[in-house]
Amino acid sequence: MEERSFNEAMAEFKQQIESLPEDRRSALRMLAEETRKRAADIKKAGEAGRIAAMEFTQALGELTEANAKLIDKATDLNLLTKYAKFDAEARERELRGEGRGHDS
Fold first, then answer.
1. Is this prediction's pTM over 0.70?
2. Of residues 3, 11, 4, 46, the one with CA closest to residue 32
3. How far apart are CA 73 and CA 80, in angstroms?
4. How far apart are CA 40 and CA 35, in angstroms?
């Protein structure tokens, strides 16, 4: 129920309460107030949930961005490691005389 519809229904309910005998009004007034408070609490919880969802979405986006950067760094490190291994093997071959221009 939308807030406007709820407020209209509550106003109508309160008018109906006032048309009852006094001995029945007190309990119904307390019920109406309890209902109003619960509706306010639900509204606050809904707003808090919406804010939490927005914050979670933002944090998830930041985490995804950080993860992409980490993957890029890992890829760079992997390529650097492969190059270093290739370079070390080439230098080792050169030192053993297995490089180009040498007869084995």
1. no
2. 11
3. 10
4. 9
